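Exercise 7.
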Amino acid sequence: MKNSLKALFVLTLAALPGAALAGDPGTDLRGDCGNIRSVSTYGEDNREDYCSQNVILRDLADSVAGLFTDGSTEPARGEYVFGTRTLRDKYSLSESQRFVNQPANTFCTGFLVGEDLIATAGHCVRDHHKTDAAAPKDHAGDCQENLSKGRYCEDIKFVFGFRKELGGWIPRSVPADNVYKCAQVVTHSFRGGPDYAIVKLDRKVAGIRPLAINRKNAGLSARTPLLVIGHPSGIPLKLAGDARVIAASTDVYVNNAGMNMKWVDKGYSFLTNLDTFHCNSGSPVFNLDTLLVEGILVSGDEDYEADPDNPGRNRVTNFPQDAGAADLGKGVGEVCTKISVPAASIPANSREATMLDMNRKAKGKLYPVMLEMLRKRAADQESQQPAIIPIPNYVPPQKPKPDVQWI
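Solution. The predicted structure, written as tokens, is:
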């Protein structure tokens, strides 16, 4: 059993794209953000940059895209240049808050589920403009009448690579090849039911693999460990773990200004204590044991509150780690649409087949097994290196790169 898992692990590493696999076992395990990390969330803020993650999680993150509008990315010289508005400016945040100097450009998140298909939250996407007689209408009824949420399909760009890269730099632009347009809303649900959309892109996505999903949400239950990957508040890609399912098989009601409101419908959603924000909507939510997608992040409690120490400025709202408060605004938890709901519109893929097979061999604990192998690989490599006496808090000088942000 151990040998077969090791062989699969080696094959998996070999199959990873060059962008994910750094080649150095230490970087593959710990990432490299070019510096030492300073030591609305539930408990500690667990959001971390792409560059700080191991190669296994970076490989998943490669399949996650930010949703942009024409106004937030501008074409130039065959590239798409990101806007310069920072998180601080967008939400009037205090200087002490994390990521305040990072650009905040996306309005939602999505993830690749087919060679030209993106899954996202239903409230992020509308159909084509009703006033444009030349534009095809993918849906009638409720989807067309969604006038208060999301952007029209033809105005959305799906961008891969808006993140802090290995080495600790955020690109100011991405190649036009990383940018895809919404061609059609394949299936959509929002009003009075599950919140999701499957969107067809204008062309097949090159060099990126669709994610694997848990089609029937088999085994999803309270305390299932979770990981979310997305663009909280519109900033470069973040990964947040140390979270779990709060409720998956029961309805949850909360008090909203004196009204009893259904917050979670057990038929199509589940409740979590993930550290997510506005613009995380549409993010893939993974089972951190199996690395399969269990849901789509769709809603949550308040993100920011007034900072009493800085009048006129805001700070991240921090709720107790065990979410599930009875009153909206006090930490009711973050809601996900079960991936089993739109699964019929998501084609099976080779990654899914491989990961299901690996999970069978790992008894549903694929990530812990792979992480231990990754640690052993790094330890074996480091044990062969000559002893080096580290200099405390020393950051090696880095040569600036053109057209990047060092944040």
